[in-house]
Specification:
Blueprint (H helix, E strand, L loop, with lengths): L1 H8 L1 H18 L5 E3 L10 H11 L4 E3 L5 H6 L7 E5 L10 H12 L8 E8 L1 H4 L2 H20 L6 E7 L3 E3 L7 E2 L1 H18 L3 E4 L12 H4 L7 E3 L4 E3 L2 H15 L7 E6 L14 H14 L16 E4 L58 E4 L5 H12 L21 H15 L13 E4 L6
Parallel strand pairs: 1-2, 1-12, 2-3, 3-4, 4-5, 5-8, 8-11, 11-12
Antiparallel strand pairs: 6-7, 9-10, 13-14
Helix pairs in contact: 2-11, 5-7, 7-8, 12-13
Bound molecules: 2-acetamido-2-deoxy-beta-D-glucopyranose (NAG) (6 copies).
EC number: 3.2.1.39
GO molecular function: glucan endo-1,3-beta-D-glucosidase activity
InterPro entries: GH, Glyco_hydro_17, Glyco_hydro_17_plant, X8
Length: 455
Amino acid sequence: MDKFKRKSTYPNLILLNISTLLLALHITAVTSIGVNYGTMADNLPPPAQVAQFIKTRTTIDRVKIFDMNPDIISAFANTNIPLTVTIANGDFPPLANLTAAQAWVASTIAPVYPQTKIEYILIGSEVLLWGDGTMFGTLVPAMNAVYNACVLAGFPDIKVTTAHSLGILNSSVPPSSASFLFGWQQYFLTPMLEYHRRSKSPFMVNPYPYFALNYSNNTDFVLFEPNPGVFDPVTGMNYTNMYDLLLDAVYVSMKKLGFPDVDIAVGETGWPSAGDPGMVLCTVQNAQWHNLNVVKRAGSGVGTPLMPGRNFETFLFALFNEDLKTGGTIENHWGLFYPNMTAVYDIGITRQAQPGGGGGGGAVPTPVTPTSGKQWCVPKKGATDASLQANINWACTSGGVDCSAIKAGGACFNPNTVWSHAAYIMNAYYQAKGLQFFNCDFAGTGSVTTSDPSK
Ligand SMILES: *[C@@H]1O[C@H](CO)[C@@H](O)[C@H](O)[C@H]1NC(C)=O
Ligand SMILES: *[C@@H]1O[C@H](CO)[C@@H](O)[C@H](O)[C@H]1NC(C)=O
Ligand SMILES: *[C@@H]1O[C@H](CO)[C@@H](O)[C@H](O)[C@H]1NC(C)=O
Ligand SMILES: *[C@@H]1O[C@H](CO)[C@@H](O)[C@H](O)[C@H]1NC(C)=O
Ligand SMILES: *[C@@H]1O[C@H](CO)[C@@H](O)[C@H](O)[C@H]1NC(C)=O
Ligand SMILES: *[C@@H]1O[C@H](CO)[C@@H](O)[C@H](O)[C@H]1NC(C)=O
């Protein structure tokens, strides 16, 4: 505990660091930072207002979303802000077929591109962590097919990738010992890295030093504070922080498979600004300090000990605090901004409204008061039957849900529709897992609601 005490003994030192870093960010103005625009909330401004806000009041220069939300995609039209979109885990397997991928590009991308500057299409989200056998088997083929379909449609600038949790690593400390989990290497990651090399697209990972806290009792190391560092005896490199260490662990793992040249992008990273009582590291100051250091690295060419001079395109998690995420207070506090578009803390990415118009974002929306109480997990509007059926199949097998109620003769068989069966099963899984928001994600096809769907 003396680590935490020491921290509060030197508040001036920390404040000095923050203002120095902020000053450096403002002066150099070379920062390039993306954000994840998550929408698990009932009080966010409409997408058009968010797009205007990002464009006129921040220096955020790229945005990533977790689905194909048409309102958000059209809100970013003609903003010149690159938008990264995600095909939900349940929806991408059929796109492993080139004909199907071409039809999908024709119906979904062609009407909105290039007015909306789509930068990346992500095939699923952390598929190797959350997916099932069908998804594993179709992941790389779908990446290839969607990419080829984009090229054939005349959109060679759209890159196709997928984001990985660092659960794909066997170990990471010291980085020289890192490797991908054995089973993933030969079947998925080698062909995927071959694909990335050929298509010149980045291997995207979600490194969260925050979630490495359980594996390290060195909080200063995790939080970019002065510390003795971690020495890697094999490479002779000294690590001063967990973030660099995690990126180098990914690099070493790629290198061991023969792909040190493939670019790495950071799909998500961040720090919660508040937590439940006792979560002493979840503070505004720590979130600000962590994200300042991430912004300082992103696109600066600083690189890491094993990748000096390299840039990592980076997306912070997240744009807004999201009130409907469950799983404890921290889950509602990953945001850089409150829903009213006021910054939770300053990391040098906001700018003042320009005088004489063009300032945008002037009208602050009235926040909707969220109703407290019970929560249900339901299929998202627009989720396809195929993805909902995949959710049912998964929950009834790997998910451990008792699915007798939706079988013929079961209490919840009627109405006999995929949507209604999925609503029952997804909610049963969500309730059984203790209302953790991530147990209602279902690869972007589920959403938490506070109104009883059976009424
Ligand atoms: C792809 O789908 C089309 C149309 O459904 C089908 O004719 C074709 O055989 C499929 N291709 C492969 C390689 O499965
Ligand atoms: C993890 O690494 C250890 C040590 O190299 C190895 O014995 C083990 O098989 C690996 N496990 C997996 C799942 O890759
Ligand atoms: C650490 O592990 C505990 C128990 O599994 C979990 O509740 C907590 O959220 C974890 N903390 C982090 C930062 O991952
Ligand atoms: C925790 O600290 C102890 C002693 O301070 C050290 O020996 C140990 O390696 C540390 N464990 C981790 C996981 O960092
Ligand atoms: C890393 O730290 C060790 C031990 O403090 C030191 O001997 C070594 O020179 C350092 N290596 C580099 C590359 O700075
Ligand atoms: C925005 O919301 C935050 C959190 O609810 C609040 O503290 C702040 O005062 C609000 N700012 C404005 C300008 O309404």
